[in-house]
């Protein structure tokens, strides 16, 4: 087989959850997705109306998510008097549980910025075709639904564990059952599927976004306007994607710290250990599925780089053509450099 000469370097099309560095990917530009450049491209876009019902509902939603999570830590939320009644391990355990809930709230906020600000404004602007919205924001709706469910369960448990006589003090005695519920059964499968899809496609989406924003003045102006929205806090699409990708890798560290400060002879200790096992298995399966997607993408890339007339005759006499590379269920098993020596 004879590869076509090309100056383009292969680009990774996905992003494993164990890696924090996103890679740009090349995508063919579909016609009609973004508006064509015109003399109007230099004009300012219409200002974003934060007073409409959409943003009013979003602000109320974000405030609801942040309720009882206003402080930076559990210790600062409950005050020194209550802390004096607990030992060091108990205080540390509550601090880490609070950190888990607080960071989950921030994660949900990031997903809502992508869905309810960026996607919302792009749809309104008509700069992007509806058919391509999912490719620009791969699986964001699914991830938001999953993590909103998780956050809601954590906050319900928080409310259930309020100390009698003081609604501002809560002491969570059991958490592991919520983790098991989120990372097993149907929900667990959805977590694996959601993150596998997002991590496999997010680099393509970011690469496509960066390519388009360089060539479209209207889009540049719109993104600048969105950056000024206070809700966004200057989080761009690539930054949001990176935060979303990293989130699932944070759970093991947080849960391990909770376990370290939990009595080993308690029921919650056993539940936490099971939850940690499920979380690690979820990450492993996501990485495995992303790896398979990478192999498929690389095989398609090799196929496109080969000369159309490339072929080889196998030992049994059959002719193997370029098209045969992607026929059926063929997968890329190994990729290495081959050196040919001529005598």
Automatic annotation (TrEMBL):
Q: Where is this region: Disordered?
A: 1-53
Check the record and name the Pfam families matching this protein. RhoGEF
Q: Where is the DH domain?
A: 92-289
GO molecular function ontology, one term from the record = zinc ion binding
Q: Matching InterPro entries, A to Z?
A: DBL_dom_sf, DH_dom, Rho_GEF
Superkingdom field: Eukaryota
- Fetch the SMART domains from UniProt: RhoGEF (SM00325)
Compartment list: Cytoplasm
GO CC term (a single one): cytoplasm
One Gene Ontology term of the biological-process aspect is: regulation of Rho protein signal transduction
Q: Which UniProt keywords apply?
A: Coiled coil, Cytoplasm, Guanine-nucleotide releasing factor, Metal-binding, Phosphoprotein, Zinc, Zinc-finger
Q: Does the keyword Coiled coil apply?
A: yes
Tagged with keyword Cell division: no
Instruction: List, as start-end ranges, the regions of compositional bias called Polar residues.
Output: 1-21
This chain belongs to the protein called Rho/rac guanine nucleotide exchange factor (GEF) 18a
Species of the source = Nothobranchius kuhntae (Beira killifish)
């Amino acid at each position: 087989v004879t590869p076509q000469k090309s100056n383009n370097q292969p680009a990774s099309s996905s992003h494993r959850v164990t890696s924090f560095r996103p890679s740009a990917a090349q995508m063919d530009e579909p016609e009609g997705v973004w508006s064509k450049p015109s003399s109007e491209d230099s004009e300012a876009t219409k200002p974003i109306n934060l007073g409409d019902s959409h943003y009013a509902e979003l602000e109320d939603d974000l405030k609801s998510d942040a309720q009882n999570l206003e402080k930076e830590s559990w210790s600062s939320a409950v005050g020194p008097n209550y802390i004096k009644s607990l030992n060091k391990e108990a205080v540390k355990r509550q601090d880490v549980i609070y950190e888990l809930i607080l960071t989950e709230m921030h994660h949900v906020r990031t997903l809502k910025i992508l869905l309810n600000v960026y996607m919302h404004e792009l749809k309104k602007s008509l700069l992007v075709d509806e058919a391509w919205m999912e490719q620009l924001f791969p699986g964001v709706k699914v991830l938001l639904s999953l993590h909103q469910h998780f956050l809601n369960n954590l906050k319900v448990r928080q409310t259930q564990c309020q100390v009698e006589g003081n609604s501002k003090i809560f002491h969570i005695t059991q958490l592991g059952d919520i983790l098991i519920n989120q990372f097993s059964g149907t929900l667990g499968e959805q977590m694996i599927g959601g993150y596998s899809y997002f991590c496999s496609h997010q680099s393509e989406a970011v690469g496509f976004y960066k390519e388009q924003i360089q060539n479209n003045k209207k889009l540049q102006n719109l993104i600048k306007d969105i950056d000024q929205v206070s809700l966004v806090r200057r989080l761009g699409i690539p930054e949001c994607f990176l935060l979303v990708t990293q989130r699932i890798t944070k759970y093991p560290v947080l849960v391990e710290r909770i376990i370290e400060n939990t009595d080993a002879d308690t029921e919650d200790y056993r539940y936490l250990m099971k939850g940690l096992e499920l979380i690690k298995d979820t990450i492993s399966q996501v990485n495995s599925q992303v790896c398979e997607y990478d192999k498929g993408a690389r095989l398609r890339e090799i196929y496109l780089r080969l000369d159309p007339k490339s072929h080889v005759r196998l030992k049994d006499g059959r002719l193997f053509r370029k098209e045969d590379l992607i026929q059926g269920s063929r997968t890329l098993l190994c990729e290495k450099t081959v050196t040919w020596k001529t005598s």
